[in-house]
C-alpha cells in the first residue's frame, strides 16, 4: 500500500494536500470545483501514464505469446497456459490495488466535502479507467485472457464431476501417475479449490471495474465454442447407434452455462438493490447467450454428422439414431446445401473411381438411397446427391449384370436388392402411379418441395425419386426395364449352361418374384428356358433307357436341348469334333429323332463340360474341362507334338484363340511349348512345383467366358434389322444426318419390330458400318459408299 500511495501521490499531489488539510471542508463551492477539476486531470494522467502501462506490461511477453496455440493440448501448451494464467491474475490484482486506493481517496474527499452519494465519482473513475485500458490494448492480450479462462473452465469442469466418477477417476489417476485434469498438479497436491477461489476473486474485481465483458467477452466466447466442438468430437465422433443431442444439451446447461453463471455472478452481488438489478440483467444476458450456444451446438453437431455421413450410410439401419438427430438439427438450421455438397464430394471420393468394383458401388448406392430417404422424404437431397452415381454407373459396362446378379444370386447371403425383391410389395408397371394415388389420398399430410432447388434437379425427377422404390431407382439408372430383363436372360442362360447340378427351385422363385415386379410379358422367354431344362432331363432319361442306344454308345452323353428362338444368341465360336466323338453325337441325334419324330438336333460343340481321364505313364488325371480343351488334348493321343498351324486347321479354331486354349494345358504341366509355335506332350512326371494338391482337377478355363454373345454383339444383331430401312432411306434421299435417320426409324420401323434404341445406339451402329466401308460420314451426314 505504501508503494501505491507513493506512486499515486507523486503523480497526484493535490489529493495528498487535500487529505492532509484539516480546514478544507470550509472552502467555497468554487474552490471545490477547481480542486476536482485539477484532481481529475491528475488522476487521468496517472491512469494513462502509470496504471494502464503497468497493467498491460503483464501481457507483452512477445516470445512466449508467439508460441501460444489456443487449441493445443500438449504438456507444453498447458504449462504455457498456467504461466499466462498467473500473469493475468497478477495484472488484475495490481490494477485492483491502485483502483481501490483511488476509489477510497475519492470517497474520503467526498466525505470531507460532505457528499454522501459516491456513485458519480466512482462512475467517472470507472469510465476513465475503461477508456484508458481499451485505448492501449496490446496485440496479443486475448491469448493471455484466453489462458486464464481456459484454466478456469478446466478447474470448474474437474470439480463439478459427480462424486462417484471423480472418486473412480482419481483412483485410476493415482495408479497411473497422470496429473489432475484441472490444475495439472499431482493428485495429492491438487490446487483446484485454491485456484477456483483465486478465479472468483479475479472475476469479482473485473465485475467491480466493469471490465469483465469488455476485456474477456471475446475470449470467453471463443473458449466456449472451442470446448463445445471438442466435447462433440470426443463424445459423438464415430458413434451412430445412439442419440447424442439430449446429452449434449444437458452438458451445455450443466457445465457451460453453469460456468458462465459463476463467472458473471459474484458471491457478493446480492448485497444491495443495485447489484440485484445488475445480477438480473446478467442472468438475462446469459439466457440470451444460452439460446445462441444451443443453436451453436445444433450446428456443430449437425456438421459433425454430415462430415461422417458416408459412414452413416454404410452402417444403415444401425445408424438411424444419428440420422434422427440430424433431422432435428435440420429443423433448427438450414443445412440442406451443406449436406448436398458434402455428400456429393464424399461419395465421389470414396466410390466413384476405377479402384472400386461395380458391385461395391451398387451396394453404396442402395445404402445411400435408404439413408438419405430416411433423412429427407422430399427426395430433393436424394435426387441431387445420387445423380453423379447414376451417371457414373451408366458408363460402366458391367452395371446391368451386377444389378441382375445382386437381384437373383444369394449364395453368399442375401443382398439389399434381393431382400427388396423378396418383399414383393411394389406394384408392377403402375408402381409409380399407385404411389402418386397414395400421395393424393393422404393429402392432409402433404408437404411442399423445399425451396432452393438446384437447376439440375427437376421437380418431376424429385417426385419420381420420392415415390419410387429402391429397385425402381436402380433400374432407372438406364431407364429401360427391357434392358435389365435382357441381361437377366443372359445371366440365367449362363447359369443353366454351366451348372453341373441344376436346382430349379431357386431360379423359379426368382422368376416369380421378377414377374411380380416387372410383369409376365418380359419374362416369358425365361419361363421357356426353365421348361427346356426340365424337358431335357426327361428326354435324357428316355434316351438313356433306350436299349438300342445303350448297346451302341461308347460313352455317356447328357444333352441340354433348348428352344433356340427363346434363348439369347450364342457367341460365334466353334470347334471341329474328332470323328469317333462326332459319331457318338450322331447316335444320340438318331435316338432323339426316333423319339421326337420330325425334330432333330443341331449341336453346339463348344458349350458344356466333358469328364476326361488322362493317363501319362503311371499318372492318371481325372478332369472336368470345356469341350474345346477336351478336343485339343484328344489329338495329342495320336501325335505327341503339334505345330500351332496344323492343329488349328484340324480343329477349325483360329491360331490366336487356340494359343490361349493351349495355355490351359501348359499351366497344368501336361503340354509344353518346345519351340515357338510347336507344342509337345509331357509324358514324364510333373515337377513338384507344378503338381496340384487334389486328385480330381476341376479346370476353370480362363473361360469362365460366357457362352452367350456379348451385349454389344446382341445389340448390333438387333439393330441389324434396321439396316435395310437405312439403305432404303439413303438410296432415296442420298444423305441424312443421324437425327433424321433416328426420327424416321422410330416413326416407321421400331413400332412394328418391337426394338427400342437410343440415338447413341444408332450412332455406334452407323460408325461400325462406316468402318466396314458400307457408309461414308462427311459433314455431319451419312451416305452410302459408292
From TrEMBL:
TM ranges are none
Which Pfam families does its entry note? ANAPC2, Cullin_AB, TPR_ANAPC2
Q: GO MF annotations for this entry?
A: ubiquitin protein ligase binding
Example of a GO biological process term: protein K11-linked ubiquitination
Q: Which GO terms describe its cellular component?
A: anaphase-promoting complex
Matching PROSITE patterns: CULLIN_2 (PS50069)
Recite the UniProt keywords alphabetically.
Cell cycle, Cell division, Mitosis, Ubl conjugation pathway
Q: Which family does it belong to?
A: Belongs to the cullin family.
**What is the protein's species of origin?**
Stomoxys calcitrans (Stable fly)
Q: What is the lineage of its organism?
A: Eukaryota, Metazoa, Ecdysozoa, Arthropoda, Hexapoda
- Judging by the UniProt lineage, the source's domain of life is Eukaryota
Q: PANTHER family, from UniProt?
A: ANAPHASE-PROMOTING COMPLEX SUBUNIT 2 (PTHR45957)
Cited InterPro entries: ANAPC2, ANAPC2_C, Cullin-like_AB, Cullin_homology, Cullin_homology_sf, TPR_ANAPC2, WH-like_DNA-bd_sf, WH_DNA-bd_sf
From the Swiss-Prot or TrEMBL record, give the protein name: Anaphase-promoting complex subunit 2
List residues of the Cullin family profile domain.
471-666
Gene3D superfamilies from the UniProt entry: Cullin Repeats (1.20.1310.10), Cullin, Chain C, Domain 2 (3.30.230.130), Winged helix-like DNA-binding domain superfamily/Winged helix DNA-binding domain (1.10.10.10)
SMART domains membership = APC2, CULLIN
Amino acid at each position: 500500500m505504501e508503494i501505491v500511495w507513493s506512486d499515486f501521490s507523486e503523480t497526484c499531489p493535490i489529493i495528498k494536500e487535500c487529505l492532509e488539510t484539516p480546514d478544507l471542508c470550509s472552502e467555497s463551492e468554487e474552490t471545490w470545483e477547481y480542486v476536482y477539476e485539477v484532481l481529475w486531470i491528475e488522476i487521468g494522467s496517472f491512469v494513462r501514464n502509470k496504471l494502464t502501462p503497468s497493467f498491460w506490461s503483464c501481457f507483452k511477453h512477445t516470445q512466449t505469446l508467439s508460441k501460444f496455440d489456443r487449441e493445443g493440448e500438449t504438456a507444453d501448451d498447458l504449462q504455457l497456459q498456467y504461466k499466462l494464467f498467473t500473469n493475468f491474475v497478477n495484472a488484475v490484482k495490481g490494477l485492483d490495488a491502485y483502483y481501490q486506493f483511488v476509489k477510497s481517496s475519492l470517497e474520503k474527499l467526498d466525505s470531507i466535502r460532505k457528499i454522501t452519494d459516491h456513485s458519480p465519482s466512482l462512475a467517472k473513475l470507472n469510465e476513465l479507467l475503461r477508456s484508458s485500458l481499451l485505448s492501449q490494448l496490446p496485440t496479443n492480450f486475448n491469448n493471455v485472457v484466453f489462458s486464464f479462462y481456459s484454466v478456469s473452465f478446466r478447474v470448474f469442469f474437474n470439480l463439478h464431476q459427480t462424486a462417484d466418477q471423480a472418486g473412480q477417476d482419481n483412483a485410476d489417476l493415482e495408479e497411473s501417475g497422470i496429473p489432475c485434469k484441472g490444475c495439472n498438479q499431482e493428485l495429492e497436491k491438487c490446487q483446484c479449490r485454491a485456484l477456483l477461489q483465486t478465479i472468483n476473486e479475479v472475476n469479482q474485481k473485473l465485475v467491480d471495474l466493469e471490465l469483465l465483458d469488455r476485456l474477456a467477452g471475446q475470449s470467453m466466447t471463443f473458449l466456449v465454442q472451442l470446448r463445445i466442438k471438442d466435447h462433440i468430437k470426443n463424445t459423438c465422433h464415430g458413434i451412430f447407434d445412439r442419440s447424442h443431442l439430449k446429452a449434449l444439451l444437458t452438458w451445455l446447461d450443466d457445465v457451460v452455462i453453469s460456468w458462465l453463471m459463476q463467472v458473471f455472478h459474484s458471491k457478493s452481488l446480492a448485497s444491495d438493490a443495485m447489484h440485484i438489478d445488475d445480477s438480473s440483467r446478467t442472468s438475462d444476458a446469459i439466457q440470451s447467450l444460452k439460446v445462441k450456444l444451443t443453436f451453436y451446438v445444433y450446428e456443430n453437431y449437425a456438421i459433425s454428422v454430415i462430415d461422417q455421413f458416408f459412414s452413416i450410410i454404410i452402417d444403415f439401419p444401425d445408424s438411424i439414431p444419428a440420422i434422427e438427430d440430424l433431422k432435428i438439427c435440420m429443423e433448427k438450421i438450414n443445412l440442406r446445401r451443406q449436406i448436398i455438397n458434402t455428400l456429393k464430394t464424399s461419395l465421389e471420393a470414396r466410390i466413384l473411381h476405377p479402384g472400386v468394383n461395380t458391385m461395391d458401388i451398387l451396394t453404396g448406392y442402395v445404402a445411400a438411397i435408404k439413408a438419405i430417404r430416411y433423412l429427407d422424404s422430399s427426395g430433393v437431397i436424394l435426387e441431387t446427391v445420387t445423380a453423379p452415381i447414376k451417371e457414373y454407373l451408366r458408363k460402366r459396362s458391367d452395371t446391368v449384370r451386377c444389378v441382375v446378379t445382386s437381384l437373383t444370386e444369394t449364395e453368399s447371403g442375401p443382398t439389399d436388392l434381393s431382400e427388396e425383391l423378396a418383399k414383393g410389395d411394389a406394384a408392377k408397371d403402375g408402381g409409380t402411379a399407385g404411389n402418386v394415388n397414395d400421395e393424393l389420398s393422404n393429402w392432409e399430410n402433404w408437404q411442399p418441395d423445399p425451396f432452393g432447388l438446384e437447376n439440375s434437379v427437376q421437380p418431376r425427377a424429385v417426385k419420381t425419386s420420392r415415390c419410387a422404390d429402391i429397385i425402381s431407382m436402380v433400374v432407372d439408372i438406364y431407364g429401360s426395364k427391357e434392358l435389365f430383363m435382357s441381361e437377366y436372360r443372359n445371366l440365367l442362360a449362363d447359369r443353366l449352361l454351366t451348372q453341373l447340378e441344376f436346382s430349379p427351385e431357386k431360379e423359379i422363385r426368382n422368376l416369380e418374384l421378377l414377374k411380380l415386379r416387372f410383369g409376365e410379358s418380359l419374362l416369358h422367354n425365361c419361363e421357356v428356358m426353365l421348361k427346356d431344362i426340365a424337358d431335357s432331363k426327361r428326354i435324357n432319361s428316355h434316351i438313356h433307357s433306350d436299349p438300342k442306344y445303350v448297346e451302341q454308345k461308347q460313352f455317356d452323353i447328357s444333352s441340354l436341348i433348348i428352344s433356340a428362338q427363346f434363348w439369347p444368341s450364342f457367341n460365334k465360336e466353334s470347334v471341329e469334333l474328332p470323328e469317333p466323338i462326332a459319331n457318338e453325337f450322331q447316335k444320340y441325334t438318331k435316338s432323339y429323332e426316333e423319339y421326337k419324330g420330325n425334330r432333330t438336333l443341331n449341336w453346339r460343340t463348344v458349350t458344356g463340360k466333358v469328364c476326361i481321364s488322362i493317363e501319362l505313364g503311371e499318372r492318371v488325371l481325372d478332369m472336368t474341362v470345356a469341350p474345346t480343351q477336351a478336343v485339343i488334348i484328344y489329338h495329342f493321343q495320336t501325335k505327341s507334338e503339334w505345330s500351332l498351324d496344323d492343329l488349328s486347321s484340324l480343329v477349325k479354331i483360329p491360331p490366336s484363340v487356340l494359343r490361349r486354349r493351349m495355355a490351359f494345358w501348359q499351366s497344368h504341366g501336361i503340354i509344353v511349348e518346345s519351340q515357338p509355335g510347336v507344342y509337345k506332350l509331357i509324358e514324364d512326371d510333373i515337377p513338384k512345383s507344378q503338381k496340384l494338391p487334389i486328385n480330381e482337377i476341376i479346370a476353370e478355363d480362363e473361360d469362365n467366358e460366357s457362352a452367350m454373345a456379348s451385349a454389344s454383339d446382341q445389340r448390333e444383331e438387333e439393330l441389324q434389322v434396321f439396316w435395310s430401312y437405312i439403305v432404303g432411306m439413303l438410296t432415296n434421299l442420298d444423305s441424312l444426318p443421324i437425327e433424321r435417320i433416328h426420327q424416321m426409324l422410330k416413326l416407321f420401323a421400331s413400332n412394328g419390330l418391337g426394338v427400342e434404341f437410343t440415338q447413341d445406339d444408332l450412332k455406334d451402329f452407323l460408325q461400325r458400318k462406316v468402318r466396314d466401308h458400307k457408309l461414308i460420314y462427311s459433314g455431319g451426314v451419312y451416305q452410302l459408299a459408292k
